[in-house]
């Protein structure tokens, strides 16, 4: 699964640490999410959507079956 977490985070001027604080996870978790080394649990995915103010479909996409969502 691909995501736009890094783009959405940097668009807001947030560091990985700032997003981690908002999500109540470690900075390393945010880094792993952004680089695709870790797929979030459903509760974490919903927290990401809420914190970033985007629907899940605007954050996550399957690179093999869909084009990246437009922002």
TrEMBL record:
The keyword DNA-binding applies. The keyword Nucleotidyltransferase does not apply. InterPro entries: Cro/C1-type_HTH, Lambda_DNA-bd_dom_sf. SMART domains: HTH_XRE. Keywords: DNA-binding. It comes from the Bacteria. Transmembrane segments: none annotated. Pfam families: HTH_3 (PF01381). Residues 5-59 form the HTH cro/C1-type domain. CDD domains: HTH_XRE. This is Helix-turn-helix transcriptional regulator. It comes from Plantactinospora siamensis.
């Amino acid at each position: 699964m691909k995501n736009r977490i890094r783009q959405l985070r940097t668009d807001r001027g947030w560091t990985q640490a700032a997003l981690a604080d908002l999500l109540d996870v470690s900075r390393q978790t945010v880094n792993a999410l952004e680089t695709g080394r870790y797929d979030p649990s459903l509760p974490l995915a919903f927290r990401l959507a809420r914190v970033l103010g985007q629907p899940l479909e605007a954050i996550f996409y399957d690179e093999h079956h869909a084009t990246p969502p437009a922002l």
